[in-house]
Design a protein that fits this description.
The complex is a heterodimer of chains A (687) and B (459).
Chain A: H1 2-9, H2 20-30, H3 32-53, E1 55-56, H4 75-89, H5 100-112, E2 116-122, E3 153-160, E4 169-177, H6 184-200, E5 209-216, H7 221-233, H8 249-261, E6 267-268, E7 276-285, E8 295-299, H9 310-323, E9 327-330, H10 334-337, H11 340-359, H12 369-388, H13 396-399, E10 404-411, H14 418-441, E11 453-457, E12 460-463, H15 464-475, H16 477-492, H17 501-515, H18 521-542, H19 551-579, H20 581-597, H21 601-607, H22 610-625, H23 628-640, H24 647-659, H25 663-683
Parallel strand pairs in A: 2-6, 4-5, 4-7, 7-10, 8-9
Antiparallel strand pairs in A: 1-12, 2-3, 3-5, 8-10, 11-12
Helix pairs in contact in A: 2-16, 3-12, 3-15, 3-16, 4-6, 4-14, 6-14, 9-14, 11-12, 12-20, 15-20, 16-19, 17-18, 17-25, 18-24, 19-20, 19-25, 20-22, 20-25, 21-22
Chain B: H1 2-10, H2 13-29, H3 31-34, H4 49-60, H5 75-86, H6 96-130, H7 145-155, H8 157-164, H9 169-184, H10 188-202, H11 209-218, H12 225-235, H13 250-273, H14 279-286, H15 288-293, H16 304-310, H17 316-337, H18 342-356, H19 362-372, H20 385-409, H21 414-451
The chains are: A alpha/beta (687), B mainly alpha (459).
């Protein structure tokens, strides 16, 4: 109908006046080819410029005042800590099978300081997958049915009540400790925590309660901390609940022992709480070290790329570097450090900055090439760990309850003499003391500084306002190209689009994949691929409606499919950039070129020009790279060498994503794979 | 084109209806994972299921159901739906009966939409016939707008979410649709009943009285009356029987009488149920007063909560007046411009209300998107349809994520969520503006077909 009308109107209808914004849109849409090339190049370039644009960190919250007081931790406290280390490493204490002895030693030490002590027993929980996690409120941990008395862990919790506080706020100090096979490093971390703890029982300035959690890490550090936090944050009011750890005779035995051997009224059987947590520090000491100086590594990534407030990292960095003389490290992708192309890119940026400076002396944005390479390696690892969505340590459990937490891993240069050990205890203890004192000064929870940032070095960061530009440039062409394709296809024919069935096919296949559990990763992966292809083909033949009508519509069908693909990619990437920026950025790097270039191979072959040949090659290459397993394989090969890359690795990787409730898993299943399938179907479109 | 027609011809309407009902039932049986009834998009202070249950509990313990500022709905709703909030069947989901009522309300609304759409389509074809345009416009390509509108209403995710989320908006929507259906098929008592109940439940449908008057006065949507006159002048035979009837006051007086009767009836019922607790004045204060003064500033998908959380206290009354008069200002110009298309006018009013009302929810959007389906033939050339579709999908996915980021993760703030609310409001504005201009263009096209020469576009 519209066609007939338009035909009769086309020659006589006056051109209506168009609003400026619409005119701008039409202009962009009509030049979408040029715009998309410019935007994509600018987006990739901006990504590589991020280390240059990184700003120095600064402490944004005035109340923190790090380092304004001189540390009070003295040799007396250090020798206390040393005593605990000795007792724990003493072979006598390891006689017990369950490691209860060492927990008793720790509890006794805490009690001697006058702290409140309690044990928290927990069962390691199976991971559950909550796909709607990002759209709704968090699910409180469901009580699992099948407890067995054989597997449980014991966290030892000591609480110091603040003399100046009202008991409404607390700072948490966590030391993971495996009583069964503890290394010297774990004992040392307990020693540091104990020396700080013993200091904090005496000081008068404490305004927030201190909780020291010795997390039993025999079922993993994260599980222990998460179990304790779940208990802390979601009190259970029903006493007649499901079978509990209390029912196990072994645990009750532990309490009886306590009653006899531990003196002090401050020991309690029930779960003890303090106020809301202002911040949490996880302290670890690494056993082996290859480095030549004492370094401290900061791990901050929590689940789904959430980061703690930048101020917490700033305080630790400031105190470690300027007060204790420790070198601060954040994770780097080591293979990138030696890459020559990155070095030359850094040199180009450096020389460009020099030229700019000579032109106008106030332009100072260049950084040395080596610094650029290091910044890029740090940025890449920051992106990678955020994109994984798997927390890098037990601190991740805190972020789910909006508590800012980081893991500090001290790696001392190793020697066994006593002076060295005292030195580490003193410096580590003073660092922790300083951080706790700063956090103690806080009047509100951390809110001043950034939550959304990427680190390029311990003292440099890229904020959300800067890195979003790179991402926005990368995905800006998508809506324009989609609109121009839609307009083109619509103007020639009004035929509606089909092929909406393919995405649903993909989600189907994912479920198939999950069902297979018991085979080896490689076979499961292969079975998954086969099943996916099979169900995709059946669904395609059953549901998809190849518009087998006039030839004109069929020619335009691929354009419509491409338009739909591009708009869904745009929505998916936009959504993902809010949930987890890093995943969206990496996904955009893979998918945007493929989606923009996709064009039926037949058309290119038929055209036979050089340009179409180039496009053909690009399409084929991108079509391979953007397939998620292939992309994973390629990246892993590039970083670790192709020799030890295995097909099953991808399966394991995806399974770990699933187990950690990562949004990346959903992204791969719901956005990347369907769009890849659509793009491939465009490539092989018969027209 | 042919393919499409064949598809429309062969698709089975009832299959889709049954599929959508089954889908709702499946969702009702897994309510634990979804927790939709606590979403701010679904349950506003006016439509929340929890508040309904609370009001019923207060009533059962012989207190005023408006005590404690929890419940703000109608006392009739409390008497009708209240018992369902506490009734449980062993082994079934908790609120099964209540959910079933919502599902039935949805299906009834869809059927009414379908019947009205068929009415409108017939009226449109008749007017084309009397304009002698049947040859120029291929009538066989006309889509069955009633079926399409009903399916849009039933399969719209917004409707499904509002239905499964146990909000009362399916009932409110049904009242509005009942009113329009009654007016279209000239069942005056039914139209009056629908209008009174819809106004009683959520106040804003009161402005639908204007489209209803037009509908009763001069019949359903048709091209402007001027066109008929021009057509007949051209032919130089004034055939009175082919002219659409002029405005007649009879049905309107009839309508006014019935509306008065129904409102007295409703008020008496409310008065009886609120006899001990302050009477009708209490009801007006905590339903209409609550709507008009925007007391509850908890976040929702509208824009008013943020604004009134920020505004200074002594400006508050002024801005309350500004925001509500905003709706009233738009009534008159739209009524003049679209008086020949009363049903479309009703759609525009509903859309504007759902944009500017104090506690909007997705249920309101579900209503106007369903009504939009009536005009698929007129809106075939609407601009920005792809943009609007993608915008609606994007915003409805992004808004819960922003809410999660603000409330549960703590890394975002209120501005994040409010941004999506603003984008949503903009989308609705674009939809209304483009929709109106598309309908006016459609009328213009008809005129050109009749007169055979284009006139100035501004006329």
């Amino acid at each position: 109908m519209a066609e007939t009308k338009e035909k009769s109107l086309s020659d006589e209808k006056p051109k209506p006046r168009v609003r400026p914004i619409v005119r701008l849109g039409i202009f962009l849409i009509s030049h979408s080819f040029l715009v998309s090339i410019v935007c994509c190049t600018a987006g990739v370039l901006a990504l590589f410029l991020l280390p240059v644009l990184a700003k120095n960190t600064y402490i944004s919250e005035n109340a923190l005042m790090p380092g304004s007081a001189s540390p009070m931790l003295s040799n007396q406290h250090v020798s206390d800590g040393n005593r605990l280390v000795k007792d724990l490493t003493n072979p006598n204490s390891k006689s017990s099978e369950t490691g209860i002895e060492s927990h008793k030693i720790i509890a006794q030490y805490m009690l001697d300081l006058g702290a409140e002590v309690s044990f928290h027993k927990f069962h390691p929980q199976m991971n559950q997958f909550h796909p709607l996690h990002f759209f709704s409120s968090p699910v409180s941990g469901k009580i699992q049915e099948n407890y067995s008395c054989s597997s449980y862990g014991i966290n030892t919790v000591g609480i110091i009540r603040a003399p100046r506080g009202d008991g409404k706020e607390a700072i948490v100090l966590v030391t993971p400790y495996n009583a069964l096979k503890s290394g010297f490093g774990e004992a040392l971390s307990l020693g540091i925590a104990y020396s700080v703890f013993s200091l904090l029982t005496q000081v008068t300035w404490l305004a927030k309660d201190i909780i020291w959690l010795v997390a039993d890490s025999q079922y993993g550090e994260y599980a222990a901390v998460a179990a304790w936090l779940r208990e802390y944050q979601t009190p259970k009011f029903s006493s007649l609940s499901t079978p509990n750890a209390e029912m196990c005779p072994d645990v009750n035995n532990l309490f009886e022992l306590k009653g006899h051997s531990i003196s002090g009224s401050k020991f309690s059987n029930s779960f003890r709480r303090a106020g809301t947590m202002a911040a949490a520090l996880v302290l670890k000491v690494r056993d082996q070290n290859e480095q030549f100086e004492d370094t401290i590594s900061i791990y901050a990534e929590a689940s789904n790329g959430q980061m703690p407030n930048l101020d917490l990292i700033n305080v630790v960095n400031y105190l470690a570097v300027h007060r204790q003389g420790l070198r601060v490290n954040v994770e780097k992708l080591w293979p990138l450090l030696n890459s020559s192309w990155l070095k030359s890119l850094g040199e180009i940026f450096e020389s460009l900055a020099k030229v700019a400076k000579s032109l106008y002396p106030k332009w100072k944005f260049g950084i040395p090439a080596t610094e650029y390479v290091e910044g890029t390696a740090t940025l890449a690892s920051s992106l990678y760990y955020q994109a994984l969505g798997v927390p890098t340590g037990p601190h991740g459990a805190f972020r789910d309850y909006q508590v800012d937490a980081i893991t500090l891993e001290i790696s001392p240069k190793f020697s066994l003499d006593k002076v060295w050990r005292n030195d580490i205890l003193l410096r580590g203890g003073r660092l922790i003391e300083g951080v706790i004192r700063s956090v103690n000064n806080l009047l509100e929870k951390f809110h001043q500084s950034f939550f959304l940032y990427l680190l390029t070095s311990p003292s440099k960061f890229v904020s959300v306002g800067v890195y979003m530009i790179a991402f926005a440039l990368l995905i800006a062409p998508l809506p324009m190209v989609a609109a121009s394709l839609y307009v083109d296809a619509n103007s020639s024919s009004n035929c509606s689009k089909g092929d909406s069935s393919t995405p649903s096919a993909i989600t189907d296949t994912d479920e198939h994949g999950i069902a297979i559990r018991s085979w080896s990763p490689t076979t499961s992966f292969m079975i998954w691929v086969l099943l996916s292809i099979l169900s995709l083909l059946t669904l395609n033949s059953v549901l998809a409606s190849p518009l087998a009508c006039a030839k004109a519509t069929q020619e335009k069908e691929w354009a419509l499919v491409k338009s739909v693909t591009i708009s869904s990619v745009f929505i998916g990437l936009g959504l993902m950039s809010v949930i987890n920026f890093a995943t969206a950025e990496i996904g955009a790097l893979l998918m945007v070129p493929m989606c923009l270039l996709a064009r039926p191979l037949k058309l290119d072959v038929r055209a036979g020009t050089l340009r179409s040949f180039c496009r053909l090659i690009c399409n084929l290459v991108l079509g391979h790279i953007a397939f998620p397993p292939a992309a994973f394989f390629l990246l892993k090969g590039m970083l670790d060498g192709f020799g030890n890359a295995n097909v099953g690795d991808f399966w394991m990787w995806v399974e770990s994503l699933w187990a950690w409730n990562s949004a990346t898993y959903l992204f791969i299943g719901m956005v990347q794979l369907p769009c890849w399938v659509l793009c491939v179907s465009i490539l092989f479109h018969t027209c | 084109m042919e393919k499409l027609k064949k598809k429309i011809g062969s698709f089975s309407f009832w299959n889709w209806v049954i599929a959508s009902i089954i889908f709702r039932l499946i969702l009702i049986y897994f309510p634990k994972n979804l927790n939709l009834s606590s979403r701010p998009e679904v349950s506003t202070p006016l439509t929340s299921f929890r508040r309904l249950a609370e009001g019923y509990w207060l009533k059962q313990s012989s207190m005023s159901s408006y005590a404690g500022s929890m419940y703000h709905g109608s006392p009739l709703l409390l008497s009708l739906l209240g018992p369902l909030t506490v009734k449980r069947i062993e082994g079934q989901p908790n609120h099964l009966l209540y959910s079933l009522v919502s599902v039935i309300a949805d299906v009834v609304s869809a059927m009414l939409i379908r019947a009205t759409g068929q009415n409108l389509r017939l009226a449109y074809l008749r007017s084309l016939e009397s304009l002698d345009l049947v040859k120029q416009i291929d009538v066989s390509e006309f889509l069955f707008s009633g079926d399409i509108a009903a399916l849009i209403y039933l399969c719209n995710p917004f409707t499904i979410v509002a239905c499964v989320g146990l909000s009362t908006s399916p009932i409110e929507n049904m009242a509005v649709i009942l009113c329009l259906y009654g007016a279209c098929s000239r069942l005056i008592p039914l139209a009056a009943f629908g209008w009174v109940i819809a106004t009683h439940l959520s106040l804003y449908p009161a402005i639908l009285i204007i489209p209803v008057i037009f509908l009763l006065g001069c019949g359903p949507d048709s091209p402007p009356r001027k066109l008929f006159l021009q057509r007949h002048q051209q032919k130089e035979v004034l055939n009175q029987s082919k002219l659409p009837p002029g405005f007649s006051w009879g049905p309107i007086i009839h309508f006014a009488f019935w509306a008065f009767l129904w409102s007295v009836y409703v008020l008496v019922l409310c008065g009886i149920s609120l006899k001990q607790f302050g009477g009708l004045w209490e009801m007006f204060k905590s339903t209409y007063g609550f709507i008009l003064t925007v007391e509850d500033l908890s976040p929702n998908i509208g824009v008013l909560w943020y604004f009134f959380a920020e505004v200074f206290e002594f400006f508050r009354n002024f801005f309350l007046i500004v925001f509500h008069v905003n709706i009233l200002f738009m009534i008159l110009p739209l009524a003049i411009r679209l008086r020949h298309r009363p049903c479309y006018l009703a759609f525009v009013y509903v859309a504007i209300c759902s944009m500017l009302k104090s506690y909007p929810s997705v249920g309101d959007s579900a209503l106007y998107l369903g009504l939009l389906g009536w005009f698929v033939n007129e809106l075939a050339d609407m601009q920005f349809s792809l943009f609007l579709f993608c915008g609606y999908v994007g915003v409805s996915l992004l808004s819960p994520v922003m809410h999660n980021l603000w409330i549960w993760r703590g890394t975002g703030n209120a501005n994040f969520y409010f941004t999506t609310a603003m984008v949503y409001a903009c989308l609705q504005i674009v939809l209304v503006v483009e929709g109106i201009s598309a309908v006016l263009n459609h009328d213009r096209k008809l005129r050109i077909l009749i007169t055979g020469k284009p006139q100035d576009a501004k006329s």
